[in-house]
Amino acid sequence: MKKKVYRILLISILIAFVLLTRLLNSTPDIPIEELKIKYANDASRFIEIDGLMVHYRDEGSGMPIVLLHGTSASLHTWDEWAQELSKKYRVIRMDLPAFGLTGPNNTNDYSMEYYEVFLNTFLTKLAIDSLYLGGNSLGGQIAWYYTSYHPQQVKKLVLVDPAGFMSKNEIPFVFKLARVPVLNEVLKKITPRAFIQNNLEEVYYDPHKITVQVIDRYHDLVRRQGNRTAFIARSNAPIVDHTDRLKMITAPTLLIWGMEDQWIPIAQSADFQKALPKSKLITLKETGHIPMEERPYESLAPVLTFLKDSNFISQ
Fold first, then answer.
1. Which residues contact 4 (CB under 8 A, 6 or more apart)?
2. Residue 172 CB partners (closer than 8 Å, separation 6+)
3. DSSP character string of 63-95
4. pTM above 0.85, yes or no
């Protein structure tokens, strides 16, 4: 009971704070052309899918490996991984609909069913019919969900702190805030930089690794027109359990987990291992929810071994 009262009080204080912030310092959307100057580069490409101009990068050559980011992130979350992987593989990453430069879709639908169709269309347009697939958090959930429908297409699967087994009680606090009426309308308009920093401190284990540039990137891209509304829509969508589809995955699967993940606790790795017999778990100490950002080279090392060694899972 005390915990419930505390949460209500905290939400009330936050509402008052945000409303005051709105009066003193608004955080308007940033025009897409301005964001492109800062967050697109020579490797950036844009492809039209169902009315969306999807921002993606296609680097290197060899077997394609497609990387999917998590909630409120962007393709930049894979920068260090892509730099190394592109030396031996064709590395493809995109800003998923609702995020980054890609922005919201026209239907306000961000279900697993929507993302499966989106990813299939994207890969078809790039003429990719055989690939390695990886994802973090939401991107990890999309990756395994997609693989369950295309088991012959995905040859190997890399899941970094993937979502999928979360219950309503385990939803991170920022998602719960997005479900609060009135407050969620304010959050569509106001996103203080300190709010972004606080969320990053939840997903990083070591806050000293959160640079000014990282905070700026997350803060800027969340303010791409429509992204905040899309976040509210995703947060308020029904929680659907698709984990029965995991049994349909035949690809060898590497699970990577930060042991200090506050958003998706490492205890959930056991659920994935049980559901995926052809899987191996690698844990990283002193690491949070996004290992590829916080400890890029340590988290990538087992991936490089996994991709080149057909016996890695059985070792």
1. none
2. 202, 262, 263
3. SEEEEE--TT--GGGGHHHHHHHTTTSEEEEE-
4. yes
* Tally of CB atoms within 10 A around 158: 27
Pick the CATH number of 28-171+191-228+240-308 from 2.40.160.20, 3.50.50.60, 3.90.1150.10, 3.40.50.1820: 3.40.50.1820
Q: How far apart are the first and last CA of the chain?
A: 49
Question: Is it the case that residue 6 has pLDDT exceeding 60?
Answer: no
- How confident is the model over 241-279, as pLDDT tens digits? 999 999 999 999 999 999 999 999 999 999 999 999 999
Q: How far apart are CA 24 and CA 238, in angstroms?
A: 35
Q: Give 179-224 pLDDT, tens digit per residue.
A: 666 565 666 667 788 888 999 999 999 999 999 999 999 999 999 9
Number of residues that this document lists for the chain: 315
Average pLDDT value for the chain: 89
Count other C-beta atoms under 10 Å from residue 294's C-beta: 21
User: Where are the domains positioned within the chain?
Assistant: 28-171+191-228+240-308
